[in-house]
Amino acid sequence: MDVNNEYGVLQVQKDLLELLKEFDQFCLANDIKYSVIGGTLLGAIRHKGFIPWDDDLDIVVDRNNYKKLKAGLPHGNLEVDRGTTSSLWVDRIKLKSNKSNMDYPPMIDLFILDNYPVNPFVAGLKFLIIAILQGMIKIKPKFSAYSFGAKVISFILWGLGSPFSIKFKLQLYHLASTWGNKDRSKYKCIYNDQFYLLRQKYPVSIMDSLLRLPFENIEVYSIKNYNEYLTQIFGDYMRLPNEEDRKPIHQDLKD
To answer: What pTM was computed for the model?
Structure first.
């Protein structure tokens, strides 16, 4: 945790911990299986809690548990909100009361595991459709952050998506993400993740075995084979990044 508020996220992390605790209790009460993932899982293993400069939470569920989760929310102080950021294909769970009073409030990014097609051609086609839909769904891409070629592609996709409602585009995204879920597969993929992670595939059994890990002053669920996952995503995950890379992601995000 950002104990000395060196990175300016101490209050956010306190709110996030309250959010995570309430989320965990809700899942326990409703028999919903989840796991911390991404930077949250990395923090649990490397720091026994938050990465000091982290300012959000990452949770993963499979499609069946996602349905149970959506059916039970809003509940208590928990609610689901896609917000106004560019990644509208990601459900975000928030506290109704926001003590941090920031433009980008504390939230859980909710990621979903769906089948990764066995056939390489189908897998490539599914990836392409998802990538196109991501470009179409974005409210306003950050063109300044892209190379010239990426700017052109992003502008075209953004233009193609403009005539359609967000609801319709998200329905298409859901259909694309769940395509092949009734088929047998050796792997799962998080199709509502960031573009550069859409090719990552995980064993179909990734959520079969869970364990409880300490996270600050509470416990959370984690996939049992976290070492394999963290190595796949972060490489030497116990090694701290360079000083210049230790910064919050969301605090100045206002798109």
So the answer is: 0.92
**CA separation for the pair 206, 185 (Å, rounded):** 13
Taking phi first (over 0 means left), then psi (-120 to 50 degrees means alpha), and beta for anything else, what does residue 52 get?
Answer: alpha
pLDDT tens-place string over residues 106-125 = 889 999 999 999 999 999 99
Question: What's the CA gap between 55 and 11, in Å, rounded?
Answer: 10
Q: Which residues contact 66 (CB under 8 A, 6 or more apart)?
A: 110, 112
Q: How many CB atoms lie within 10 A of CB 22?
A: 16
Helices 148-161, 120-137: inter-axial angle, 10-degree rounding: 80
How distant, in Å, are the alpha carbons of 173, 185, 206 from that of 128? Answer: 12, 19, 24
Domain ranges of the chain: 10-245
Alpha carbons 149 and 153: distance in angstroms, whole number = 6
